[in-house]
């Protein structure tokens, strides 16, 4: 192969290479733009996914908060129910009896019983709604009707106490306090210490710390060796730390 032919072939190769670069350059720019659009779309998609994840996380936190609040409310309700069961158990150990020898109903303590058979039956029926039927709504209505019919009954402190417990278990603090106050004003009631303690608890839940501490102190002072006094001491210690 002579030199002229070699030169012509070399020039042809250079020409083809230049042409290839000219054609390839626009193609590379187009590919780059396409890639940029793809990356931008992917970025937008990732941003949208991240927003959805953030919203899901916020929703989960909100649900978790509601679950925790519900768990706390259920725990409180179970505690009130447990206390009611304990009190009902104590009541079951003191069956209602009739004592014909009672002469003056107004002067006897709340531990004695009425000569009025209708009154005894009405009270016993209300008690049975708690002890036997576990019908707390029915018991509430029965005790309220009993106190309306027999406002001066010897059972008034006990009936008021159980009404207080029933309302307390339903978190009706206003009605609970109203009935516990009746018991607290009955000096010889066997339920007075616990009624005073419950009034302290109600005042504490109502954010009246001064009143709550006054009730707790009264329990501690007037019933120093009772279970109610120990609970009052614990409540006072807790309040003093705040």
From TrEMBL:
Compartments (UniProt record): Periplasm
Keyword field: Cell cycle, Cell division, Periplasm, Signal
One BP annotation, GO: FtsZ-dependent cytokinesis
Taxonomic superkingdom: Bacteria
GO cellular component: outer membrane-bounded periplasmic space
Residues in YbgF trimerisation domain copies: 30-97
Signal sequence region: 1-29
One Pfam family linked to the record: TPR_16
Known function: Mediates coordination of peptidoglycan synthesis and outer membrane constriction during cell division.
Similarity remark: Belongs to the CpoB family.
Database matches in HAMAP family: CpoB
Name the UniProt record assigns to this protein: Cell division coordinator CpoB
Originating gene: cpoB
């Amino acid at each position: 192969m002579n030199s002229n032919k070699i030169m012509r072939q070399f020039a042809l190769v250079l020409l083809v290479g230049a042409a290839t670069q000219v054609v390839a350059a626009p193609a590379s720019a187009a590919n780059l733009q396409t890639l940029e659009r793809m990356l931008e779309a992917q970025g937008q998609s990732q941003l949208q996914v991240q927003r959805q994840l953030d919203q899901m996380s916020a929703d989960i936190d909100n649900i978790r908060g509601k679950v925790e609040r519900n768990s706390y409310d259920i725990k409180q309700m179970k505690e009130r129910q447990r206390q009611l069961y304990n009190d009902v158990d104590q009541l079951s150990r003191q069956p209602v009896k009739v004592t014909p020898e009672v002469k003056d109903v107004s002067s006897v303590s709340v531990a004695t019983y009425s000569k009025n058979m209708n009154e005894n039956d009405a009270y016993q029926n209300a008690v049975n709604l708690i002890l036997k039927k576990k019908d707390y709504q029915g018991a509430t209505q029965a005790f309220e009707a009993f106190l309306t019919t027999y406002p001066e009954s010897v059972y008034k402190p006990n009936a008021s106490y159980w009404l207080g417990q029933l309302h307390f278990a339903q978190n009706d603090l206003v009605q609970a306090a109203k009935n516990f106050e009746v018991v607290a004003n009955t000096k010889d009631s066997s339920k007075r210490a616990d009624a005073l303690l419950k009034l302290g608890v109600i005042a504490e839940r109502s954010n009246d710390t001064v009143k709550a501490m006054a009730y707790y102190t009264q329990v501690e002072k007037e019933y120093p060796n009772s279970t109610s006094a120990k609970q009052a001491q614990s409540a006072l210690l807790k309040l003093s730390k705040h």
